[in-house]
Known about the structure:
Low-confidence stretches: none
Number of domains: 1
Largest sheet: none
Helix content: over 70%
Radius of gyration: 20 Å
Mean pLDDT: 87
Shape: elongated
Amino acid sequence: MNSGEQLAPELRTMLRIQQVIVAAMAMGVLVFLMVSLAMHTTSDPPEMFGMLTMIATGAAVAGLAARAVVPVLMVRTQRQRIARGEWKPSAEMPGGAMIAKLGPDGALMMLHQLRVIVGSALIEGAAFLAIIAFFIEGSPVAAGLAVLLAASLFVQFPTQRRVAAWLAEQRRLLEEEKLLGRSTSDI
């Protein structure tokens, strides 16, 4: 399957689950921000860069950096296990029978879901911290940071085209790793 082709129906179902998860995470951040904006009342002038805002900024930078590294390492490690035949879905795991039926595509799609959830959670945590910083300090910088982090969740929203391209690349890497018996490239 190339990146222009349709995903199999089972893979589309798994994609929809990922889309719901990411949308729920982003909307949770936005709703919490709106509640904080509505409830934040103080006569004190806002602190532009209070201690919590600085910590939230550091957490945002760390979260964005971690999202660029951690999911890549997780996928590479698990893909290598798949290539060596060390990882197979069990019938006991949720959707295990369907994933097993799909073969390597099912296993790779599970890795994609893991990648999406972990990467989004790293950003979501930093966004919640930024909102708390806004609520306590009134910093517009913290509120803006929360909006930017929520937007970054939507920027990497899993679409059929993106997932198909990712799967095609992962299949290629998986085949190389099977042939060579080692890691050949990052994601």
